[in-house]
Amino acid sequence: MQIDPRRSAAFLAAVDTGSLELAAAQLSLSPSAVSQRISALEQDFGTPLLVRSRPCRPTGPGTRLLQYLRRSSLLEAEFLAEMGMDEGPVRVAIAVNNDTLATWLLPLLAPILASEELLVEFVLDNQGHTFALMAQGRVVACVAGEATPMHGCSVSPLGLMRYRMVASKDFAAQWFADGFNRETARRAPVVVFDRKDSLQSAFLLRHFGLPEGAYPFHYVPASDPFVDAIRIGMGYGMLPMEQCGAMLEAGSLVDLAPDLYVDVPLYWHAWRVQPPRLERMGAALVKAARAVLQQPG
Fold this sequence. Notes:
21% strand, alpha/beta, 7-stranded mixed beta sheet, 13 helices, D-Maltodextrin-Binding Protein, domain 2, Arc Repressor Mutant, subunit A, two-stranded antiparallel ribbon
């Protein structure tokens, strides 16, 4: 059986845009025509492929189809380029965590993308969740905290991001004049990135026995504002050395627990079978990341 390209395009557009209406606008079709093409694709496979919710999301079989379609479209683009029928740069979707994107990734990746004539779409999530985005077929590669590769994928260690518990000088003087301990930590407000961010809660539980909810906290779900919130004294929290190192040296931030830190290992995940351009991009990124990130041992 051959997959009908018009039906698969409708399915991809619905998943990418999250609705039949937006998919229809992207494909210059009516929403009913998009729905009919997806229904025909489901009949071809004999199983539901798309949950028509808001946003639309693939079913289990739909997720496997999505993985196949993402990879096959990249392989097709690579083949056309080799045959002199290049239609322009290829776009790749990569899942990364916010701190990676805000610190070391862009300076390393930008020249590689230019050299390989690739465009990128970053999909952001916590490093513990980017792996799931690849499993769902939403991206073709990811930077993740997971060391074990998914079936059909390869994994390469990149290095460590070291996190320190820091606060502004004035904040530390106000809240931790008697030291950074269980009692003072119960009262001082913490800055947390989002509900998936467990760095602060794990640190306070491990070292002070404070469960989540035993202390006040802010949610600041954007990398630069998160840093700013700590810098201006809204609260204290954990920052990677790539973001706080210069401020610690300048004295505008203080390390509340100099003997304690958290190392977060990062790994590059990609499909074993992928276009040569993506293989070269991944290999170059792994090499460059290992040169700038701290290595174990």
